[in-house]
Amino acid sequence: MDTFYFEIEGKPMPCPRPRATRQGRVYLPSEYTKRKKEIAIKIQEAMGERVRFKGPLSVSIFFLHPRIKALQTKKAPKERQFKSTRPDLDNLAKTILDACTEAELWFDDSQVAQLVIVDMYAAKGEEAHTEVTLEALC
Description:
Strand order of the largest sheet: 1-7-4-6-5
Distance between the termini: 7 Å
Largest sheet: 5 strands, mixed
Oligomer: single chain
CATH architecture: 2-Layer Sandwich
Structural class: alpha+beta
């Protein structure tokens, strides 16, 4: 089976709610669109000469956030810890899936038939980043 893995450095960014102008035009904040474009460029660089995925896909996303102060004490575990606070997982995943579409990794994110999302605090000494694995299902 065809598998593709890549990492995105930096703190995970959720997809915000769309904003509207007084004229009714809907837009996303520029900070978000800029970050999504940066992620799409990194995905394209990682792809190299790879062609777009066709057919159903399994996507696994591990979001690793910066450690909070409570996990920086000497008594705190050194390994990764599950995170169950905001931002919501679906908003974090939307950023990655939309960037993959923009990077032309697949034709459309409707190809994602299986999605595994894990939200954690990074291990001690580990930087915040996102790990993504795609696998063709057939």
